[in-house]
Amino acid sequence: MDIIAPFWTFMDNSQTGLILYNQYTNGSVLQQATQDINSYFPNLNFSAEWVFVATWYEVAYYPTTGTKTTFQVVLISGGEKSFVLMNYGSLAEAVWNVQAGYDTINSFHYFTIPGSLSSSASGVNSTFSLSSNINVTGRWAFQIDSGPDNFKFKGHFYPIPGLASYRSLDGSSPLIYLQRPFVYFGKTYNYIYVNHNGHLTFNSPFSSYTPQRFPLYGSRDIIAPFWTDLDNRQNGFVLYNQYTSGSVLQQATQDINSYFPNLNFSAEWVFVATWYEVAYFPTTGTKTTFQAVLISGGQTSFVLMNYGAIASTSQNVQAGYDTIDSVHHLTIPGSFSSSASGVNSTFSLSSNINVTGRWAFQIDSGPDGCQFKNRSVQLGDFFWSDSNCTQKCTCTTSGVHCITKLCSFPETCQQTNFQFLCFNGKSA
Ligand SMILES: [Ca+2]
């Protein structure tokens, strides 16, 4: 619901008070509105064309007949711009909670005036009456034609608007049916889940907020642009959309042919999931934005991971993808390090395809790997085959090759999900 609520509470004008409204298209009210808006929002060169005023004048609370509360909402429009002023007069001590501000469908944009749902909402010390966001005591002013950035972002982001997932600490989108099948390392998937903690999964939603190092040698296909503990309950949006025609497909075709030449690729389907200004848990208010773009051309498929502003966190982050048994996996450099987040995030500042903040991977199939003790190993992967880390083995195009090599000081030999690895300091 779109709602503008200067003072949402249980009121009753059946005995006392008046609820009045009027609109204006010329005269001194428009001049006043033009002057006010240009004063509060400079550099807009605003000219008011229409003003609507609604006043709750000395209205009583239910059931305390005789109390008197006065406030006003003023809608102001000019050109493509619109504003709301909320003016507060004398606010009797309320017996019910009061919410002041505005909300929109799916809460894409909303604002709560400080003091709402607290004892300082009403009475002689009401923060609504005594404070302001524009230095006019008792008045609050908001531009309400479009939201911050209108979901526009840096050039390397694909369109952000889409369906918004619910607000929840560790939730997931509902099951999303894909309008085209998506091939992920040889498996064909027809649906997907956008998980709030920064990953996509196919078979079932996945709520894990504790990132684990890839390769997991686990039982899950997962695409994780930014696996960490995120929280969209207070701020931020988890949005998703899919496309089978139009400019987004043209963009995807052009991008993929530029990053992976000689494929003569043509995009048939694009799926965009965006974590837009989402907070970390528990640091509500932090804002982190990133995006995963799945692109299919039938049997070929790709993922783009786009990174915007990444708030600083001391939490671990895993970025990349993994497959069942980790036959194929990838970790973006910086994962599980302090350079994953913050203004110097390597995700945002680097690239594997020379587009700052973007990472692109072909994910329909990978090169054949190796077999070691009946398990698959990705080409290029290495491990130690013994618990003392004396034999270092590497999967090459001609199979697994092992040489005698010890861990370097001060590394220690540790068991992993697959064989052993030398770790510097603490392991996963
Ligand atoms: Ca979370």
UniProtKB/TrEMBL annotation:
<dbReference type="GO" id="GO:0007160">
    <property type="term" value="P:cell-matrix adhesion"/>
</dbReference>
<dbReference type="InterPro" id="IPR003886">
    <property type="entry name" value="NIDO_dom"/>
</dbReference>
<protein>
    <recommendedName>
        <fullName>NIDO domain-containing protein</fullName>
    </recommendedName>
</protein>
<feature type="domain" description="NIDO">
    <location>
        <begin position="6"/>
        <end position="147"/>
    </location>
</feature>
<dbReference type="Pfam" id="PF06119">
    <property type="entry name" value="NIDO"/>
</dbReference>
<dbReference type="InterPro" id="IPR052749">
    <property type="entry name" value="Alpha-tectorin"/>
</dbReference>
<feature type="domain" description="NIDO">
    <location>
        <begin position="225"/>
        <end position="366"/>
    </location>
</feature>
